[in-house]
Amino acid sequence: MEPKIVITVLLTLIAVLLIVGARLKALRFVGYAAIRLIVGALALFVINAVGGHFNIHIPINLITSLVCGFLGLPGAAALIVIDQYIL
């Protein structure tokens, strides 16, 4: 084979892999964020179910679910403190 053809094929293959890899990384982040959003919403549901006895109610929306999902227990505690003392 000609060296030009081999180099062209290899460079094309590298470019395709870089483009596909970048898209897969973006999709992986979207999937990670979606899972965190669902976990946050479920955690807020449990907090509202248990907290109903203690007059704790945190609305379940996109922002509160993301805060609770990405920050975990400290985020849920912060939402409870904000709900009880600031609002």
Question: What does the secondary structure layout of this molecule look like, with pairings?
Answer:
Elements: H1 3-51, H2 62-71, H3 73-86
Helix pairs in contact: 1-2, 2-3
Radius of gyration from CA coordinates: 23 Å
Average pLDDT across residues? 88
| Helical proportion, percent range | over 70%
Give me the secondary-structure category: mainly alpha
Poorly predicted runs are none
Biggest sheet layout: none
Beta-strand content bin:
under 5%
Number of strands: 0
Per the principal axes of the C-alpha atoms, what is the gross shape?
rod-shaped
Give the number of domains.
Answer: 1
Terminal Cα span: 73 Å
Q: How many H/I helices?
A: 3
Helix-strand pattern: HHH
Give a verbal description of the structure.
The chain is mainly alpha-helical and 87 residues long. It has one domain (3-86). The protein has helices at 3-51, 62-71, 73-86. Helix 1 (3-51) crosses helix 2 and helix 2 (62-71) crosses helix 3 (73-86). The longest helix has 49 residues, at 3-51. It starts with a helix and ends with a helix.
Task: Tell me briefly what this model is.
With about 90 residues, this protein is an all-alpha fold. The chain contains three helices and no strands.
Keywords:
3 helices; 87 residues; 84% helix; mainly alpha; single chain
